[in-house]
Amino acid sequence: MSASELAAAVRESLAVDAEEFQAEAAEEAERLKAEVRDGTFDNSETIVGLELELYAVDDRTDALQRVSRPLLERIGFEKELGLHNAEMQTSPQPLNTYGLAAQEQELQANLVPAQERTRADNIRLVSDGLWTVPPNGETARSYLCDSVEADGIRIGTNMSDSVRYHAMANTDYPSGLRLDAPNVTLEADTVMPESLITSIQPHVQVPHAPDLPEYFRYALRIAGPLLALGVNSPFFPPDLYDDVPDAAILDDAWMEHRISVFESVLNAADESIPKKVCFPPDFETVDDAIDAIVADETIVPMKLTRGERFDDQFAHVRHKHGSYWRWVRPVFDGATRSQANARIEFRPLPAQPTIRDAIAFQAVFAGLLESLTRREHPVRTLEWERAEKNFYNAMRNGLDAELVWITGAGETADIEEIYGELFEHARDGLRLQGLSSEAARQYIRPLRERVDRRITPARWKFGYVRRRVQEGVPLPEAIWGMQAQYIRKQEETLIEGEFTEWLS
């Protein structure tokens, strides 16, 4: 699509009447609530799924690499925000022995031929939380900020041709379009800085849709501890840092900068405006969850036509959900009436070093929701404010964060006690779904070892860079060296290995 064609499409989307769009969404929401009450969105069992985002690098230099849209289509991946991004999704499967195995095998089956095909173009797909090496001959700042004006519309040069992404930079909604992190300063004209980050997103479809708020309550309480285990982005591309001493950047680094990137790019800089990217509230009822999605401000209303999918009768609600950027969010959709589901998307986790690590998070998240809700675990009484604090503490400090949990004996901040309970209930939840004790332990083990060794991917990266800086290596070279090591280690372990193998 040419810049002028894209600009015309963006202008058309901006002409949509926002009040009329909102009225359509509110009307659809009432029909959606009725369908939920009638049991349309119930499942016979718990169902799991996973989204995996990657970025592309030059296989010879490790520099970020643009991927042509035809190549993405040939390897069966979906485009994301940046031209360097790719996304794959697993088919939903029952949470049982065979369903989890199918999740892992589907990722392997799709990623192996994709890597072989892209390697012919000297491209490697990387699973990582935040890229640090810009394209050859470019700076990260220029790559993220490059844009043009076409017929009065601001177009991001390195963004995919999705109308929605480009429209965000041309609406009245005051997205920050900036980076707000320690010792990093960047302001852009589009949402392109968000393309720094990639994630994994486990999904759990709940059996009985009206029970979603109870599952959701537990999902918020485990968000901090799971994020602390998964942190994987302590560094930015070096040219984005302010002119400060290397020691200051190391001292102030957070273990998971992905959270701050998403929040500062898409939230309004004016703190009086409600945040769109944030830790969400608890919901008392499933109707409250639907109402929250509908009440959320729509950044880009679009003219929608109802197609043949079952959930196209809720097209405006689905569109609003697309910019309901909470770190944990409820979803109601389904291509057919029989596939209609109510699910929880868990969005805080950065992309992980290996497929098995990603599946471990999927299994632990699903197992925890299964066990904690059935056992009516007392952590449900943890105050929401404390759960939110856990989350942002984990973002900054990973496994060194101050976390608070509630056991049957009361409140605890002891990391061994917290994760001992966490893993025991994950195992219990998987056992309740038919897995053997040994199979459940195997899924949990990659994360259990992170706790035992007090190591996360972010801490591994940070340790490498700090050692190199202490040896006299300039910070940019240390970060690029770390990135090269990460990519080489992943090359050996992505498909069948685990992150903790990197430590031997």
UniProtKB/TrEMBL annotation:
The keyword Hydrolase does not apply. It holds the Pfam family GCS2. SUPFAM superfamilies: Glutamine synthetase/guanido kinase. GO terms for molecular function: ligase activity, forming carbon-nitrogen bonds. Residues 11-38 form a coiled coil. Gene3D superfamilies: 3.30.590.20. The keyword Coiled coil applies. Keywords: Coiled coil. It comes from the Archaea. InterPro entries: GCL_type2/YbdK_subfam, GCS2, Gln_synth/guanido_kin_cat_dom, UCP012666. This is Glutamate--cysteine ligase. It comes from Halapricum hydrolyticum.
